[in-house]
Amino acid sequence: MTDSISLVDRSTAKKPTRSRKPIPTVDTTGTTSAVDALAEAPATSPTLAVDQIVHVDPTTLLIGPNVRKTTDPEAYKALVGSIAELGVLEAVTAFVTEDGQLEIVTGQTRTNAAVEAGATSIPVRIIAKPESTTLAQLVENTARAPMTRADQVAAAKQLAFDFKLPAAQIAKRTTLARKDIDHALKVADAPVALAGLDKDGLSLELLAAVADSGLTEEEAKPVFEARWNPEMELQRAVRNKEIRVAVQSETDKHRAAGVQVTKVAPTDDYGTPNKDTKAAWVRDLIDAKTEKQVSAKEHENCPGHAVWIGQHGYHHDTNIDIMPVCLDPKAHGHALAAGRAAAGKPQMSDEEKALKKQNTHLNKAWPEVTEVRLDWIRDHLLPLKKLPNGWQLFIADDLMSEHEHYTAHLGLSGNPVVLNRILALGVRVSESEHQTGYRYVSTSDVASRFRAELAKRPDHAILALAIQRHESAMEVRGGWEKLSPRYMQWLVDNGYRLTEEEQIILDRRVALEGKRRAGRAEDEAAAESADDEGDDFA
C-alpha cells in the first residue's frame, strides 16, 4: 500500500503579507463578458460574471473543506512538477464569499500544488455559491483520479446525513454508481466496517458485507488481514460465529439440564486419541465385563457421562454435533471396543500425518471455497457487458485439450446447479434427503431459462457452459483434486483472488506435474541410451 499524504488545509492558515486586490463582485446573470466587465467596471471593484475565468495569485485563495482527504504522494509530486513547468492548465472553480474573498470549490489539490511549485497566478473560473461544496467536489473528483474508499464514504455520509440527499439523488448528481453509494452509506454507519477502510484489497462491496455480517471488529480481523481471498475469510468468519453461538446455546441448555459438558474432544478429526484427556467417545466403548456395546441411552446413568458439543469431522454447514463422552472409561467399568485402541492403528510418519490433515481440511473447506468462487463468477465476471479479452481463446484451448469431457458436462444433462447459480437463472434449489450436502434443480426449468439467456446474451451463456464444465468436475467431495490450473489462472487473470486452499492445491498440482515431467525425461533418456546401445551392437 502506497503511503498517503494529507493535503494542506490553508482555510485558516496565515496568509503572506502582501497587498490584496479587492475581489470583484459577481454578476450571476452572466450577460457581461469578462473583458467588458473588467474594462467598464471601476478599477477598485470590477464585476465578474459567472463562468468568467480570471488569473489569481494562488496564495490569496481560501481553501474550504475537501472531500478528498488523501492523495497518492507520487501523483502529487508529479503534479507539482507539471505545474512548475507548464502552469495550471485547467481552471479551478471558486465563488465569492460575503467578505469579498474567493473560496475554492474544486481544485484544492491543484491550488496547493501551485503554491508549492511557486506559481504566482492560476486560472480560476467563477461560479455561483453552490448549495453543497461537497457535492461539487464529489462530481469533479470522481471524474478525475479515483477517490479513496475513505473519501467516498465520508462524502456519501455528509451528503446523505447533513444534506438529507437520498442515495438515488446522490448517484444521479455524481458519477458514483448507486450500488457504490449504498455500500458507502452502510460502511459509514458501521464502526466494524470503518476499521477496514485503510486496508488494501478490500472493496466497498466487501466492507458493506462486513457491516451486514454482525461481526465484531475482533471477529472481522481475519477478513481485514487476509493474505488470500477476503470474501472467503468473511464467509468463514460468519460461519464460525454461527457455530460458536450454536455451541454456546446448546452448552447452556445441557448444563441447565444437569448434563456435564466437556470442551476437550477425546480424539481429533482424524481419530487420533487426545493425550490430554482420559475421555472416550461412548460409541467406542464396551462393558469391560460383558463386552457388550455401551449405548448412549444406557450411558446417561454413568457418573462419567458428559457430552462434547461442536463440529467433529467433515462438515459443510453450520450444524453442530452433540456427542456422548465418558470422562474416565476405566474407572466406570468400560473398555475400548476392539479396533478402537490407538495401539492397533498403523503408525504414520509425520509427513503422512501432515498430508492427511491437509487433505481432510481441503475436503472440509472445499464446498465453502467453491461457493465463494461461483459467487465471484456470478457477481463480477458474467455481469460484464463486455467479456474480458481472451475469453474465446480460453474456450478454444479448453475444447482442444479437454474435448472428451464436453459431451458429459457442456450440455444440460446431469445436475446443472452450477449453471443455475452463475447465470442467476433463479430456478429453486433443493437439498437431497438422502445425500448430505447434495443439491439439485429441475433440469427442464434450467434448460428453458438457459435457452432464453442464450438468445439474449449468447457469448455469456457459452462462457458459462465452459465454466460449468470445470466446476461440475469438482462439485463432488474430494473434487478439488480435479482443479484445473489453466482454468484457475484464467480466473486470476480476470481479477479473481485465490483462497489459501486453492493455492495449496495448485502448488501440489504444479509439484506433481514437475515430477511427471522429470519421470518422462528419465524414460526418454533411458530409451535413447537403449537405442544407442542397439546401434553399437548392430
What does this protein look like?
The structure is a single chain. This protein has helices spanning 34-40, 73-86, 108-117, 133-143, 149-162, 167-173, 178-188, 191-194, 204-213, 217-224, 230-256, 296-299, 350-381, 391-409, 417-422, 443-456, 458-473, 485-493, 500-537, and strands spanning 5-6, 25-27, 47-49, 53-56, 62-63, 70-71, 92-96, 102-106, 122-126, 260-262, 280-281, 285-287, 305-310, 321-326, 334-336, 430-431, 439-440. It is α/β, with parallel strands linked by helices and 538 residues long. Among the domains are: 1-129, Conserved hypothetical protein from pyrococcus furiosus pfu- 392566-001, ParB domain; 261-344, no CATH class; 351-513, no CATH class. Mean pLDDT is 78; it is low at 1-45 and 403-414.
Strand content: 5-15%
Instruction: Provide a count of the helices.
Output: 19
Q: Average pLDDT, to the nearest integer?
A: 78
Q: Roughly what percent helix?
A: 40-55%
The neighbouring-strand order within the major sheet is 4-9-7-8-5
Distance between the termini: 69 Å
The 3D shape can be described as: extended
